Give the backbone structure.
Amino acid sequence: MRVAVFGHGVPWGIFAPFDVPVEDVTLRAARPAPQIAAYLEPFMDPFARAVLDGLAGGAFDGVDLLVFLRESPGALPAFHYACDFARRGLLPADAPALHLLNLVPSNTPAAHRFNLTEIDRLADVLGSAGGARSRFEMPPLPPLTRGAEVAGPRQALLGAPLGNTALQEGLARLGPLVLDQQAEDAARAAAGDTIDAALAAQAANPFAARQPGDLYLSAVASHLAERQVERVVWQVDAHDDLWGWLMPDLRALAEKAGVAFVDLGVLPRRPSAEELSPVLERLAKDGAV
């Protein structure tokens, strides 16, 4: 059985007890599929659009199951759209089965019971292998240059997930990139090699998109101090409706800590070197955009 998973911050520890290969397809680009183009609104999450185009275009041939992570922005509507496209006959005949995994990043007794029920549902479609480890390799995370000898301010990149590492690489040329929210989320979500350990990691992840606890700002404050950050760089998607609400408080937190705050505003999710060039040039010149 081949399994693909869509959603930022894949909880690899949840899949560990199942003896199946798992592939993260969250950042995979896809060509537009003409048969579904009329159904995809221009404001749709770009990663959701890509996975739907991939499904309709046959990019998942050979994949038996596509798991959507409810935790991830855009994953729930993408799942519903995919189910409707299947109902309408707009997906290839050999398209994978579709499954929504709804894990709540909380350790309350009610949330824990709910999460175990969701894992039981996942087990029903994957099949239990008696505790055997799954055969997957973790995808590469955006690079950090924490220890590199780079002249320039120590930087943090915060905000919405990106589909490539072009911005990270560009910032790393201007100074050490010592904090990357996307990489932090991915690493924390991946933690745990048992179900209980994985669920505990989800509950404690301050960068989880649906984290119900008030953990984000305090975690950022701690990282800014511990990693001696000198400049925070902030960016979001054009249709962001999640992270942008945190920006005013984050800016105030940075200013209180004496850390420069640079708001890049809206960026493409897969920015090209040409698109980033003027932004990086201005950052290199005076640290402001």
Summary: The first strand starts at residue 3 and ends at 6. The two ends are 48 Å apart (CA to CA).
